[in-house]
Specification:
The complex is a heterodimer. Chain A is mainly alpha-helical. Chain A has one domain. Chain B is of the alpha+beta class. Chain B has 2 domains: 61 residues; 136 residues, Sandwich (Jelly Rolls), CATH 2.60.120. In chain B, the strands form 2 sheets. In chain B, strands 5-6-2-9-4-7 form a 6-stranded antiparallel beta sheet, covered by helices on one side. A 4-stranded antiparallel beta sheet of chain B has the order 1-10-3-8, with no helix packed on it. The radius of gyration of chain B is 27 Å and the shape is elongated. The chains are: A mainly alpha, B alpha+beta. Chains A and B meet through helix 1, helix 2, helix 3, helix 6 and helix 7 of A and helix 1, helix 2 and helix 3 of B.
Chain lengths: 252, 211
């Protein structure tokens, strides 16, 4: 008889029970969905990308980023400091498998739900607009997911590297505000110097605005590097996270 | 595992409540189908008045009426009109005293400025831009595009008055009643699902207790 290989799904399910548990997650979900609902019902929109922008940018993106900085970063760190991560690592899945399961349950799944729910609400307000171009709406959803997963991966890496929930939460927030600060500075400099290149760099830092521009203004030229900047960083960080968990991570 | 098992039901409750909030928000501060933007500028020698209307999130019909102008030139720019003026600065076109107004409830962005440019540039752009027939212009603006207007004053040193009206087109949403009805239905479904899950879990627990 062939031996069955342990699967990823049970570990993802077990850890998701903590990362998506009520009422903390539900409260966050209600907050972001309610904000999106209010914003999407105020602004008239006739394009799927604009519907997504009206609902998510910037209030929901900010709220989800802060949530990820606190939950993804300090959640992973507290798993390590409480000894639960050692228990997970004893599961016969290999370090990369456990790292992947934690990535799914702590970062990807919360992002998919926290971005998806507000967009479902926004789509319910203007169903005719979304029905006209559902793929464009999905593309906008994907863009927000990629951007927030990139931030989540950054915070997750900080969490497993620091192994201390307090330190990782503060470090995660500091890194987030640094990123936002650079974005703001580039925008201010772009306006002050009249530099279109700086404006394009700043825009590339928020992947979803590049995708939104491409979707809502098809005539506007969007550079390939602008579209690859954040996804490239995401892939690089993901590889670093897996490599760190495979070779460098030492339980405290 | 109960966290994940109950997630779809909890999600339905949250979605339902949010759709109800959308209904209430749209009743109090829903979209405006008409937006207006008025202003007066006094261009001096070598100056013109620039106006941009950017259909940010919705398409619409723009009507511009101006007084004190000799000629109106216009063009369509894709995307951000402010970027247009920033780029135009490389050709000796300098926007000053920029006034910006974003009407979020109509999804439109207005901006006006006193624009300084040398006479040769003015002659050049006069050839390149379209010309309005009289002192008013009406244009159907698709979403994401901007109408850039250049008002050349009839006489320098005298005021140029303009009145812009933007009528939102192509926007349709569920009514407040429909949103509240839909939200109530979705939230009720979620609550019902949660109740069924709770009963099932209790029965399962009781069964195990008997064994």
């Amino acid at each position: 008889m062939s031996e069955r290989r342990p699967r990823l799904a049970p570990l993802v399910m077990v850890d998701s029970a903590d990362s998506l548990k009520a009422p903390t997650f539900d409260f966050m979900l209600l907050v972001v969905s309610a904000i999106a609902a209010a914003l999407a019902s105020i602004e008239p929109t006739t394009n799927p990308a604009s519907v997504a922008d009206a609902a998510l940018d910037p209030a929901v993106v900010f709220a989800v980023s802060l949530y990820l900085a606190m939950r993804a970063s300090s959640g992973l760190a507290s798993l390590a400091s409480s000894g639960l991560l050692q228990l997970y690592l004893s599961y016969p899945l290999g370090r990369v498998g456990v790292a992947l399961a934690l990535y799914l349950s702590r970062i990807l799944l919360p992002v998919l739900v926290l971005v998806g729910a507000p967009l479902v609400v926004a789509a319910a307000i203007v169903p005719h607009v979304i029905a006209g171009a559902p793929l464009a709406y999905l593309e906008a959803y994907g863009a927000y997911v990629v951007y927030l997963t990139f931030l989540g991966t950054l915070f997750g890496l900080v969490g497993v590297a620091s192994k201390n929930s307090g330190t990782s939460a503060v470090a995660g927030l500091a890194i987030y505000f640094l990123y936002e600060g650079v974005y703001l500075l580039l925008n201010v400099m772009a306006t002050a110097r009249g530099s279109y290149t700086l404006h394009k760099i700043a825009m590339a830092m928020t992947f979803y605005s590049v995708v939104s521009l491409k979707l809502s203004s098809p005539g506007v030229a969007v550079s390939a590097w602008q579209l690859l900047f954040v996804p490239g960083l995401l892939v690089a960080l993901f590889i670093v996270y897996l490599a760190y968990m495979r070779w460098r991570f030492e339980p405290p | 595992m109960t966290g994940l098992r109950s997630l779809p039901a909890r999600l339905l409750v949250v979605l339902g409540l949010s759709i109800i909030i959308a209904g209430i928000a749209s009743a109090y501060a829903g979209p405006k189908m008409i937006a207006t933007y008025n202003g007066v500028r006094t261009p001096m020698n070598g100056e013109i008045v620039g106006i941009t209307i950017w259909a940010m999130s919705t398409s619409g019909n723009v009507t511009v009426k101006a007084r004190g102008v000799g000629e109106i030139l216009y063009t369509i720019v894709k995307g951000d009109p402010i970027g247009f003026f920033t780029n135009a600065s490389a050709f000796g076109v300098h926007a000053e005293a920029i006034d910006m107004s974003h009407d979020i409830r109509s999804g439109v962005f207005f901006a006006s400025a006193r624009v300084r440019l040398d006479p040769l540039t003015l002659i050049y752009i006069s050839k390149k831009l379209s010309r309005a027939n009289d002192s008013s212009i009406a244009y159907s603006l698709p979403q994401g595009e901007s109408l850039v207007l250049i008002l050349i004053p009839a006489k320098y040193g005298e005021p140029v008055r303009y009145n812009v009206t933007f009528h939102v087109t192509g926007y349709e949403r569920l009514s407040t009643t429909q949103l509240i009805g839909l939200g109530t239905g979705v939230a009720s479904l979620g609550l019902l699902w949660l109740a069924v899950l709770k009963i099932k879990t209790r029965r399962l627990g009781a069964g195990r207790g008997v064994e």
